[in-house]
């Protein structure tokens, strides 16, 4: 996607339901993506145009969330993001997160499971919920996804909605782990690729035991890994536009 094409999408992406502060954040960051990122997006047709859906991404960098939101908007969906609750306690970030109707997760506590209730409600109301099943950056030295946590599987099974696996690559070059400021120059290549929804329909009527949740989670993570393998084997993360 050329900068001109990406800039043109500024007027096409959905605005209704974004909230003032979330919308302002998008409008501020969109020109940065246009100017400093060589973005390639594929698989948007796998994202349903309406109804509840979970977009499940691998996690490499704090820049993942920006690339993921851009992907959702280019897919004509306004995402509700599952994110660490500490962001709500930061003055500016808190306004953005509350404005966008995003969903806080208290990591490492028993309250983490409580975040799934509003997420399931959002999905049942036809919303697009965006999540990172690993729960944190991958610790794999080569950047491959880790074993996922069960939250994405649980909310998808409870709401009976599709899970679209999405792989990102290149965000770790734009904002390496531990960095505060992005490395804007030279322009970084980021690729975001979605696959077909993961089939969990055979698990809908089963009790949500640890075994069932592990099976569903494995299917989701395997699909994300497959998508990422396709990006990396093609070498597209280091090629030009």
From TrEMBL:
Residues 53-171 form the Phospholipid/glycerol acyltransferase domain. GO terms for cellular component: plasma membrane. The chain crosses the membrane at residues 20-41, 53-74. It comes from the Bacteria. SMART domains: PlsC (SM00563). GO terms for biological process: phosphatidic acid biosynthetic process. The keyword Signal does not apply. Pfam families: Acyltransferase (PF01553). Keywords: Acyltransferase, Membrane, Transferase, Transmembrane, Transmembrane helix. GO terms for molecular function: 1-acylglycerol-3-phosphate O-acyltransferase activity. This is 1-acyl-sn-glycerol-3-phosphate acyltransferases.
């Amino acid at each position: 996607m050329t900068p001109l094409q990406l800039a043109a999408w500024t007027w096409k992406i959905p605005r209704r339901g974004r909230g003032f502060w979330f919308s302002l954040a998008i409008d501020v960051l969109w020109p940065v993506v246009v100017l400093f990122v060589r973005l390639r997006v594929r698989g948007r047709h796998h994202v349903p145009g309406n109804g509840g859906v979970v977009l499940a991404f691998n996690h490499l960098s704090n820049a993942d969330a920006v690339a993921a939101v851009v992907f959702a908007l280019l897919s004509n969906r306004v995402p509700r993001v599952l994110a660490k609750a500490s962001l709500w306690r930061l003055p500016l970030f808190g306004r953005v997160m509350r404005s966008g109707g995003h969903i806080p997760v208290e990591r490492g506590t028993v309250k983490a499971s409580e975040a799934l209730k509003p997420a399931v409600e959002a999905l049942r109301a036809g919303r697009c919920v965006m999540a990172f099943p690993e729960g944190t950056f991958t610790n794999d030295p080569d950047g491959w996804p880790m074993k996922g946590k069960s939250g994405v599987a649980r909310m998808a099974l409870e709401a009976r909605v599709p899970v679209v696996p999405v792989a990102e690559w290149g965000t770790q070059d734009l904002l390496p782990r531990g960095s505060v400021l992005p490395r804007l120059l030279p322009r970084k290549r980021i690729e975001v690729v979605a696959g077909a929804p993961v089939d969990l329909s055979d698990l809908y009527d089963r009790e949500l035991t640890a075994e069932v949740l592990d099976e569903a989670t494995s299917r989701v993570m395997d699909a994300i890994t497959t998508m990422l393998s396709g990006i990396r084997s093609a070498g597209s993360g280091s090629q030009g536009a």
